Amino acid sequence: MKRILFVEDDDMSRDVISTRLIRSGFEVIMVEDGYQALEMIGTQAFDLIILDMSMPGLSGWDTAKKLKSSAATASIPILALSAHAMAADRKKALDAGCSDFDSKPVNLPRLLGKIDGLIGSDSKTIS
Amino acid sequence: MNPHASQDVTVQDLPYFDIRVDDLTRGSEVAQLFEQNHSVPGILVMREKQFRGMVARNQFFQRLGRPFGIEVYASRPITAFLDSLPSPPLVFPMATTIQNAAIVCLARPAEYVYDPFVVNCEDGSPRLVDFLALIMKQTELLTLAQTEAHSQRAAAISASNAKSDFLASMSHELRTPLTAVIGYGEILIEDVRSGQLDEAIPRLESIVTSGVHLLEMINGILDLAKIEARKMDLSLATFPLPELIRDIETVAEPLMKKNRNNFIIMSDDRVIEMHTDEAKLRQCLINLLGNAAKFTNQGRIVLDVRKDEEFVAFRVSDTGIGMNEKQMGRLFESFYQADSSISRRFGGTGLGLSLTKQFCEMLGGTLTVQSAENQGTVFTLKVPIRSKDPIASTST
């Protein structure tokens, strides 16, 4: 089962989106901000990070930059998931090092398509 | 200068010369007059108080310089010179704008382009105006118009940027609760299909909460749009202030209980009646008290109502989390909350204070804030005891 680290500060969004990801067959680990994300990645392996952008403390943009600047985490794909849905917001996320961008509210087939594009749909799991 | 004046400036606003001679005056005397008055660009020729013509300095001396010029023009009356001109001088009605006069003047044949011209006054008497004075005025007006256009453009760009920022924030703020509405809705469809209804109630509650939040936000946005379009009306009425305070106490009490705050009202009984928009004042006070209650936990919130000359000062102080300078600076901006997690932790649309400030200004009042981190916040809302109807008191 693919492991996803889901970083989202809004309680309802975190609950809704993680429920849908779990029902779609992923293992989802949830954290509430950028620092918790860095802490989690330091101790566990993930296939994908789904990252909210505007968060208190360490923002999604800054979190992505830190993850990309470290050799240990640079290769983990990051999917930015933001309620900032203008074209410029997509660019800003990609510039920060995110591999792809999707907007909230979530369109599940579209989100799953993007996840598939980043980590494939094979059932290989991390040992 | 009035920004709209550039179209209103006419040739009668230009400096003028008023040296006149009778049409029987000899050319040599006119030449003498020119020599005695170096700055004079031309002389008016009158016949019995009627305008007869204009002697432009340059044209006149040029004629005198021609072969036999002295004989032909200096020793005879000045009419000999006037009659030799191919066309009469330009005469403008006094309401002619500077711009139109400049266009007509500049269209004269090249050799006459620098000649002065005549402005006909109300009483029919002519004034002589230097061409250069006209061109200088026109240049000044063009410069002014350009400066105006620049600043209007800058203002328009900044307004348009502010609007784009507002729309971007609005889109973000609406999408977040919609994530919950749509997401929980889709989850519930799956739940119902599979008969798994254990968590249906909290999910439905989340949908309702998010829906209510969206509605509050939309109402706030509509209010702001109304204010901006100047379509928000005041409905002024005279009402007893103590009754409003009692009302507010009833509404605020449950808000205060949520975080177990102690709520105290101190009211100055000198103010018995106010004449203002009661509904807007009430909304302002409830917004401020709601804010105080939200950001204070097991503390004390005081509403102090006091007469302050022609105003009533409503002071809402709390012992809550307070704000730093930076947070206070942007406090009244729409959708600004001191920290993006605030709306999640504390709720609220991010529009309440922005609206409170706008409402209070419509009532002719002011809203100020004092705060320090972890030391609480004081909002002071000062509203005139008698608000004026904005339609009667302002012109836009």
Major sheet of chain A: 5 strands, parallel
Number of domains of chain B: 3
Beta percentage of chain A is 15-25%
Overall pLDDT score of chain A: 91
CATH architecture of the largest domain in chain B: 2-Layer Sandwich
Q: What number of structural domains do the residues of chain A give?
A: 1
CATH architecture assignment of chain A:
3-Layer(aba) Sandwich
By secondary-structure content and strand pairing, the structural class of chain B works out as alpha/beta
Overall pLDDT of chain B: 88
Topology:
The complex is a heterodimer of chains A (127) and B (396).
Chain A (H helix, E strand, L loop, with lengths): L2 E5 L3 H13 L3 E5 L2 H10 L4 E4 L8 H10 L8 E5 L4 H9 L4 E4 L4 H12 L8
Parallel strand pairs in A: 1-2, 1-3, 3-4, 4-5
Helix pairs in contact in A: 2-3
Chain B lengths: L19 E3 L4 H10 L5 E6 L2 E7 H9 L3 H6 L4 H6 L6 E3 L4 H9 L10 E4 L5 E4 L1 H64 L5 H29 L8 E4 H18 L3 E6 L5 E4 L1 H17 L5 E9 L2 E8 L6 H5 L12 H5 L5 H11 L3 E7 L3 E9 L5 H4 L3
Parallel strand pairs in B: 1-2, 4-5, 8-10
Antiparallel strand pairs in B: 2-3, 5-6, 7-9, 10-11, 11-13, 12-13
Helix pairs in contact in B: 5-6, 6-7, 7-12, 8-9, 9-12
Characterize the structure shown.
The complex is a heterodimer of chains A (127) and B (396). Chain A has a five-stranded parallel beta sheet with strand order 2-1-3-4-5, with helices on both faces. Chain A has helices spanning 11-23, 34-43, 60-69, 87-95, 108-119; strands at residues 3-7, 27-31, 48-51, 78-82, 100-103. Chain A has one domain (3-119): Rossmann fold. Chain A starts with a strand and ends in an 8-residue tail after the last helix. Helices cover 43% and strands 18% of the residues of chain A. In chain B, the strands form four sheets. In chain B, strands 8-10-11-13-12 form a five-stranded mixed beta sheet. A three-stranded mixed beta sheet of chain B has the order 1-2-3. Chain B is elongated and about 120 Å long. The chains are: A alpha/beta (127), B alpha/beta (396). Chains A and B meet through helix 1 of A and helix 6 of B.
